[in-house]
């Protein structure tokens, strides 16, 4: 069966701004919203958009991510000859193939894409939280007969200089690209979502590689090269919730926004579901001492304390007289008794012992790392 | 570890006293503890024992069971490489085999084919009505240590732990120390108040199973634990009892089903049933976390994912995709999947089957001994009317 | 591509004239062409159309079907993310619903629930007895182009391509060009020798399906293609015929089943049925290549993996795990899985069901019009005796 | 659940002695015996030995291999929390992690093994053809309280200098290891099968790495270090068919041996099955012009020619009047009419056009590469 579209999710980045949360795992594998990992949003968008062939390019600490993605069956991608394929560095008769940038990662995996022989390649980032129908964007790409369509969203003018912005003409054709400009000519920020017509992109990647021209990054090299050659590049505007959760503060605030039952993402919408790999665990047990308000709790939790405006991911234990407020607790964290947690992120499997405190502010979120232990007495350990 | 057992699950249970919950499902498919079905418990025991396959003998069409089990992959029972769940519909088994001569013909043959083809040393026979957490590996080691012909699982129980008109039986122990069994007695004939409940779970070698299967066929008898104990005692062979000491509830009527669910709100019971080498496994479903609103008041309750809760829930179990509006009050109740409770509704000692709609201001109050059951797809109106779909 | 169709497979077929092959299996589970079962063909059509789910309405317990289908993953019909095979046992459907009141209650409800919950625009209704290779996407495009209320698949056939007492029907075309259908006639009432065979495969919108379902329920009528054509014509709505021109065989008796298998030895028929965007999919089984010994003589034959062949095989089909000894001679025959043919045996115009043992020197000879059928597990002795297990 | 044993299959090698057969695919992914790939034997041995946790270390051209192995479900490994996990090079905060040798590959994947927390690690090679019960070898390892058990097999003394040989004392304890010695002290050749007690091996790998001592290869570095430290190393003797198919001649002769219905491997034995990933394909079609003798043919083949003492893998087409003798034809090869193939290996998807010849000798097997085209006229292509 001919595959019309292959999606490549670039999930190789370390996400070093997430500090101790990404020491052992890649950023796209970081938990989100109680029941998810960040990459679930891109994978679910693919599944819901009817794109079943997905390459997930991983490189940095991939064990958790690879185990999570598997063959894509959790997202229904493994049907009809499709599936998720993990693409990691490898060697060949030409030598070792590490991935040096977004475009270079695609270049190194040309064999994979050519196997599928697609007309279009959708390039996605594995670390954004949003719901988007790529099929509509693809329809637009076809309609414009574009060689590249870039997903953009309007941002406030004052923020535009923090983004790569796209200046367009009246027909939405992109005429200039500015990476983090001092004087932005447009407020249309690139979302890092690209649809390329594959044969053309392949030609650029292979030709420039053979001429030793740098073609490692889509924003820095490929788009400028396309612009220089007057390729038909169009901007496709997205309106809706979209968030890059690249920092501790943005990860925290995205979780707090997610708590709102009227949130734009509408996680309970059955027509556009966000899928994930579900663990086998027990029901949620809220004891008679539990107090839970304006919070999300996930299967496997045992709650004897007080939870205010917080998210508990699966298998979190909260002891008596502990109070958790405005916080996001990742899976398998254990929180003892008389603990106070506020404006914090608690990493997977972290252990916060009795009587400990973990209190941050909106501008300086408190963090317990992956498996970190906080509080407790040495003779107890 | 290599697979050592060929499990046979007899899922033809007594279901009349569980109506209307068993109108469209066998006992094995009854929902339990917010996320499970009863079959998940024996299946998880099989998973922990690393069984590769299982043969299911069911009555009726069994489609609710198939839809839950699918390929059996949740419990490691599926594989391209041998193994799998083999289902055999015996409609009503021997009880009225005359009416079902077509199936009758294959009753013994299906058992024979499954056991001879399974790559295993032992056969384990079990059912789904004895809600428990049996460790098959320990049972197997006990069986090997005793060098027993057949080993049967029992639990010491008090009479009041069972339904007053229970159909099950007790095991008579010859020597308490040695655990050898000298006979089986119907509970109605047992004089003592505390006895050894026969959990109708047995392990025996493949060879012994095939011997007894042949005897059953010759005598036109059912293939079940009690007949096999009889065969063994008649032949003068050793029958040993393996004592189970964990949580047990025999699901035989609405009351015992209700109590079993409520038992889960006690941490000791919960841990006894759910603490295993691996968690109890059930077919996973994609879901969102449960949201508890600002007005929610929760006290000693269990929930599955995917609910939205704005009201008060006390001493209750709430299954997936349930919505509970502000000012609704739920107490001592079981609310199954997809149900919706509107504002101001009041439920106490109630079991709502799947997809029940409780309208604004409706009130239902049963008793702990006699909870009100609303069948699947029912609608409960404020005026007290209940409409069954 | 996104899923667009909700398929409903009515697998309650006429099976009496296919006995003994249908003794323990529905028509949908009949083995075909060395590696397949009939259900693989509609399922592969669904796979090519990227259907996510399917509802199966079956009679009896259907366990041979379940054991083949398992989770449906072979045909992309299984997924944690929505989709799946939903099975509904209607035992004998409307024909004797009085006897099965318990199931009757759910006949309309099961259809309703499946279709309303499926994320799809269209419903496709089909069966398993019309062995063919229908491209559902083309059918859907035709349906959309014609802006049809319902579209039915037909094939132009000659009377002699069907069983003389066929129970199927023909479509009357109003205008040949336009393909609109003006009525349905039982084949016994058709005068012409060549007519448009109604393949009982239909596409219609979800909304129309639900309308007609409601009408069927009100009138206590079956949910099937013929009734739905009637509803549409009665309402004055457009009914179009979509012509299928590929290989077709209606499996309605032993002769048509035999002929269909033999047809596969003709390359044109083989290609028409097997050439698809994707290969026909069946549940994969681990196997070794087939070994042909030094004494083997093969002429125009098909084999599955896992056989050992030392004898002569001409114009025949041989299924998995068959052993054919030296000097055995097989001609114009169908040899199913696990059968064993000993030295010097002679078979011509024979169908051996699974696991048949043909002893040294045994001879069986039927005719092309009346092949000899040996039921599952049978033993054929040299003295001509046939022992059925 | 605690995992007692993890198997690590080293499948990263290029297998350059297989020439054009391994240009695009790794050696363990090379087809064998009609229905298999070489790695199927090691994977099936794991499954049949009750070892469900298998890391498959890949590095060289891994696409076909990874797709073949998947999550191990074809071998029934994905049950009971086990499964096959593909381990490829990756990066971490410590930098890029390519695999420089057999022991180094295990060192780089310590995190994976530690996740499983096993008592024992079985090290296997992905390119040997044999059936072996690793559980029996493990029982022996436990019984000897060994820190390392090496699988060995007796070879003729005159061949011993081509192998790594193990000199043992009377208790089968290994006292000396000679890598391809001129004067072998033993005829027990190492099969490249090791059972290590994991905590001890980990200690050796980590300690020596931190001291910058070379510990890259099991044969060259780890075993000598164990011997120097008087670790308890035992030899476990294997008797049965075992073949390293590292050269074109050995790959060819292993296939020819495999044809024998009385072959030691006994491929039809249902108690120790060799599993593989089965393709969806049609039955075998032998037309009236076909002549087939002493050959193995696989589903999906279409045969109109003559096949003598040869193996056709799945989906091979052989046209009229073509004669194939003493050859191994890999999947999806297309062989036209009037072709003569003798003592040859035809690679996956190769196309031998009408009237072509491909004839080798026992010492110089003829080879058509992966996808290679032979014969034909330019105007036909």
Question: Could you name the key traits of this structure?
Answer:
A: about 375 residues, alpha/beta, Spore Coat Polysaccharide Biosynthesis Protein SpsA, Chain A, UDP N-Acetylglucosamine Acyltransferase, domain 1, 31 strands, about 30% strand, B: Spore Coat Polysaccharide Biosynthesis Protein SpsA, Chain A, 2 domains, 7-stranded mixed beta sheet, 9 helices, nucleotidyltransferase (chains B, C), ADP-Glc_PPase (chains B, C), glucose-1-phosphate adenylyltransferase activity (chains B, C), glycogen biosynthesis (chains B, C)
Tell me the layout of helices and strands.
The complex is a heterotetramer, with two copies of chain A (381 residues) and two copies of chain B (389 residues).
Chain A: E1 5-10, E2 31-32, E3 36-37, H1 39-48, E4 53-57, H2 63-69, E5 83-87, E6 90-92, E7 95-97, H3 102-108, H4 110-116, E8 120-125, E9 128-130, H5 134-143, E10 148-154, E11 164-168, E12 174-179, E13 188-197, H6 198-210, H7 218-228, E14 233-237, E15 242-244, H8 248-258, E16 284-286, E17 291-293, E18 295-297, E19 302-303, E20 306-308, E21 311-312, E22 317-318, E23 323-325, E24 328-329, E25 334-335, E26 340-342, E27 344-346, E28 351-352, E29 357-359, E30 366-368, E31 373-374
Parallel strand pairs in A: 1-4, 1-8, 4-5, 10-14, 16-19, 17-20, 18-21, 19-22, 20-23, 21-24, 22-25, 23-26, 24-27, 25-28, 26-29, 27-30, 28-31
Antiparallel strand pairs in A: 2-3, 6-7, 8-13, 9-15, 10-13, 11-12
Chain B: E1 5-10, E2 31-32, E3 36-37, H1 40-48, E4 53-58, H2 63-69, E5 84-89, H3 101-104, H4 107-117, E6 122-126, E7 130-131, H5 136-146, E8 150-158, E9 169-175, E10 180-186, E11 194-205, H6 206-218, H7 225-234, E12 239-243, E13 249-250, H8 254-263, H9 267-274, E14 290-292, E15 297-299, E16 301-303, E17 308-309, E18 312-314, E19 317-318, E20 323-324, E21 329-331, E22 334-335, E23 340-341, E24 346-348, E25 350-352, E26 357-358, E27 363-365, E28 372-374, E29 379-380, E30 386-387
Parallel strand pairs in B: 1-4, 1-6, 4-5, 8-12, 14-17, 15-18, 16-19, 17-20, 18-21, 19-22, 20-23, 21-24, 22-25, 23-26, 24-27, 25-28, 26-29
Antiparallel strand pairs in B: 2-3, 6-11, 7-13, 8-11, 9-10, 29-30
InterPro entries (chains B, C): ADP-Glc_PPase, GlgDAde_trans, GlmU/GlgC-like_hexapep, NTP_transferase_dom, Nucleotide-diphossugar_trans, Trimer_LpxA-like_sf
Keywords (chains B, C): Glycogen biosynthesis, Nucleotidyltransferase, Transferase
Protein name (chains B, C): Glucose-1-phosphate adenylyltransferase
């Amino acid at each position: 069966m001919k595959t019309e579209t292959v999606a490549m999710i670039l999930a190789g980045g370390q996400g070093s701004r997430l500090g101790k949360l990404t020491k052992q795992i890649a950023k796209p594998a970081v938990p989100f919203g109680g029941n998810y990992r960040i990459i679930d949003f891109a994978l679910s968008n693919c599944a819901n958009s009817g794109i079943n062939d997905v390459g997930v390019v991983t490189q940095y600490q991939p064990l958790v991510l690879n185990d999570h993605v598997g063959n894509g069956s959790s997202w229904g991608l493994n049907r009809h000859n499709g599936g998720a394929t993990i693409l990691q560095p490898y060697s060949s008769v030409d030598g070792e193939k590490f991935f040096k940038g977004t475009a270079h990662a695609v270049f190194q995996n040309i064999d994979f894409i050519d196997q599928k022989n697609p007309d279009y390649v959708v390039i996605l980032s594995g670390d954004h939280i949003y719901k988007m129908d790529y099929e509509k964007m693809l329809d637009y790409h076809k309609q414009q007969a574009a060689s590249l369509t870039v997903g953009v969203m309007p941002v406030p003018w004052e923020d535009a200089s923090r983004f790569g912005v796209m200046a367009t003409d009246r027909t939405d054709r992109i005429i200039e690209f500015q990476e983090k400009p001092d004087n932005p000519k447009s407020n249309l920020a690139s979302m890092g979502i690209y649809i390329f017509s594959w044969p053309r992109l392949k030609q650029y990647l292979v030709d420039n590689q053979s001429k030793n021209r740098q073609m490692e990054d889509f924003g820095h090299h490929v788009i400028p090269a396309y612009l220089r050659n007057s390729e038909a590049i169009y901007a496709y505007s997205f309106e809706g919730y979209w968030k890059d959760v690249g920092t501790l503060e943005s990860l925290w605030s995205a979780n707090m926004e997610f708590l709102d039952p009227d949130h734009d993402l509408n996680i309970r919408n059955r027509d556009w579901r966000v899928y994930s790999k579900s663990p086998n665990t027990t029901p949620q047990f809220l004891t008679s001492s539990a107090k839970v308000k304006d919070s999300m709790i996930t299967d496997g939790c045992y709650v004897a304390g007080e939870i205010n405006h917080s998210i508990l991911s699966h298998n979190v234990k909260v002891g008596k007289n502990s109070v958790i407020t405005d916080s996001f607790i990742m899976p398998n964290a254990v929180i003892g008794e008389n603990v106070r947690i506020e404006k914090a992120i608690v990493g997977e499997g972290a252990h916060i012992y009795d009587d400990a405190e973990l209190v941050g502010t909106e501008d300086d979120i408190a963090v317990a790392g992956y498996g970190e232990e906080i509080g407790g007495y040495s003779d107890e350990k | 570890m290599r697979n050592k057992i060929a499990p046979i699950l007899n899922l033809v249970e007594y279901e009349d006293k569980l109506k209307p919950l068993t109108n469209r499902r066998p006992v094995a498919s009854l929902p339990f503890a917010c996320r499970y079905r009863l079959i998940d418990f024996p299946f998880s025991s099989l998973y922990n024992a690393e069984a590769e396959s299982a043969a299911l003998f069911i009555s009726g069409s069994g489609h609710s069971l198939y839809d839950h089990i699918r390929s059996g992959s949740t419990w490691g029972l599926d594989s391209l490489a041998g193994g799998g769940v083999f289902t055999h519909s015996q409609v009503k088994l021997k009880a009225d085999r005359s009416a079902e001569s077509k199936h009758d013909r294959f009753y013994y043959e299906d058992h024979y084919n499954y056991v001879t083809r399974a790559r295993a040393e032992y056969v384990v026979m079990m059912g789904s009505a004895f809600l428990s957490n049996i460790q098959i590996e320990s049972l197997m080691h006990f069986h090997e240590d005793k060098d027993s012909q057949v080993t049967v699982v029992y639990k010491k129980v008090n009479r009041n732990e069972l339904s007053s008109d229970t159909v099950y039986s007790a095991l008579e122990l010859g020597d308490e120390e040695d655990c050898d069994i000298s006979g089986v007695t119907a509970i109605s004939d047992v004089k003592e108040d505390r006895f050894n409940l026969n959990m109708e779970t047995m392990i025996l070698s493949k060879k012994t199973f095939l011997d007894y299967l042949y005897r059953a066929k010759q005598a036109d008898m059912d293939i079940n634990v009690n007949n096999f104990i009889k065969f063994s005692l008649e032949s003068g062979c050793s029958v040993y009892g393996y004592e189970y000491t964990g949580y047990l509830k025999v699901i035989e009527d609405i009351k015992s089903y209700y109590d079993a669910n409520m038992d889960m709100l006690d941490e000791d019971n919960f841990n006894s049933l759910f603490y295993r080498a691996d968690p109890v496994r059930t077919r996973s479903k994609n879901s969102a976390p449960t949201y508890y609103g600002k007005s929610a008041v929760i006290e000693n309750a269990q929930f599955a994912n995917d609910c939205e809760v704005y009201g008060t829930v006390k001493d209750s179990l709430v299954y997936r995709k349930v919505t509970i509006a502000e000012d609704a009050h739920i107490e001592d109740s079981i609310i199954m999947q997809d149900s919706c409770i509107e504002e101001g509704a009041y439920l106490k000692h109630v079991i709502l089957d799947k997809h029940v709609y409780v309208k604004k201001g409706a009130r239902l109050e049963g008793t702990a001994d006699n909870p009100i059951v609303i069948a699947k797809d029912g609608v409960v109106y404020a005026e007290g009317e209940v409409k069954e779909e």
